[in-house]
Amino acid sequence: MRVADRYELEAVIGQGGMGQVWRATDAVLGRPVAVKLLKQGRTGREAAAMFRREAQAAAVVNSPHVVGVHDFGPHNQSFYLVMELVVGNTLAAALQQFGPFSPPAAAEVVGQTADGLSAAHDQGVIHRDIKPSNLLMADDGTIKIADFGIACFLNHSAEDQVPQQGVLGTSYYLAPERARAEPVGPAADIYSLGCVLYQLLTGAPPFLADTPTGVLRQHLVGVPARPARVGSGFGRQLLRMLAKDPADRPDADEVAAWCRRISADHPAHPPADAELFAGPTTQLQTVSSRYERTSACQLSLKETV
């Protein structure tokens, strides 16, 4: 099947809530790409607006740590989004395969992610869904942020934002202010990245509960234990990322800087850590951890308080 008389679809490589991702070839430029098609049945005005917003949000961010956007347009009464094809794996899949990361390897992943978030925040883009399955690990070791499907723009009016019912996101990685359905800024992404870092170090997110609503309550009032296998300085920085008050969290540049210091002082040691960044060369698939499979949700506002 060919999209826009240009992109030859070859194989499905991922599934998401909004669409299906295909490996494809750009017949004009002769290069491999990833093409995301809006799912059948998701062609209403709100779904189309969210899909367009995903394309716009990712397209304005220029960073080696954000999946690049090449094209966007209508197709068969729906829409398509053409992106950089990342050959590698998701962080969620790496966690399932290898278990917890060493502190230096975790710092390397989080530092690169923070660089990508810094570029996004500089453009006024808040990702709002940072989690292991949205962080791609390319075979050359580069970390790339994917899926800006529920991103928002800081400088746009409320009328310009995509309407939604409830809180969109994944409960294990949701900042307290998002759980309260309050306006969010860059600090919300830092909190989510802190949850990812916690999971990288321990194998589990900082808060667990039997229901997504229970997890959100823990984000509001719970106190995470400092991981035992990290030094006091690393632990303090992690807990700053998980501060309840957004004003108490570091920004993305600060997170990237201290992660680089950790990586420089304690480089990842092969072969164990090297395997994290040199897995089999497979086409990327959206592989969720068991935590994400049970927690991706849209909660009504009254459930979150």
List the helices and strands and how they pair.
Blueprint: E1 2-3, E2 7-15, E3 19-26, E4 31-38, H1 45-59, E5 69-75, E6 78-84, E7 88-90, H2 91-98, H3 103-122, E8 125-126, E9 135-138, E10 143-145, E11 152-153, E12 167-170, H4 176-179, H5 186-202, H6 212-221, H7 232-241, H8 252-265, H9 272-276, H10 290-295, E13 296-299
Antiparallel strand pairs: 1-2, 2-3, 3-4, 4-6, 5-6, 7-9, 8-11, 9-10, 12-13
Helix pairs in contact: 3-5, 3-8, 5-7
Protein name: non-specific serine/threonine protein kinase
Keywords: ATP-binding, Kinase, Nucleotide-binding, Serine/threonine-protein kinase, Transferase
Enzyme class: transferase
Element order: H for helix, E for strand:
EEEEHEEEHHEEEEEHHHHHHHE
Helix/strand/pairing class, anyone? alpha+beta
**Average of per-residue pLDDT values:** 85
Per CATH, what is the topology of the largest domain?
A: Transferase(Phosphotransferase), domain 1
Helical amount: 25-40%
Strand line-up in the sheet with most strands: 1-2-3-4-6-5
The CATH architecture of the largest domain can be given as Orthogonal Bundle
Terminus-to-terminus distance: 47 Å
CATH superfamily of the largest domain: Transferase(Phosphotransferase) domain 1
According to CATH, what is the class of the largest domain? Mainly Alpha
Integer-rounded radius of gyration? 19 Å
Low-pLDDT windows of residues: 157-165, 279-305
What's the number of helices? 10
Shape from CA axes? globular
Major sheet description: 6 strands, antiparallel
* Count of all domains: 2
β-sheet strand percentage:
15-25%
Q: Tell me the total number of β-strands.
A: 13
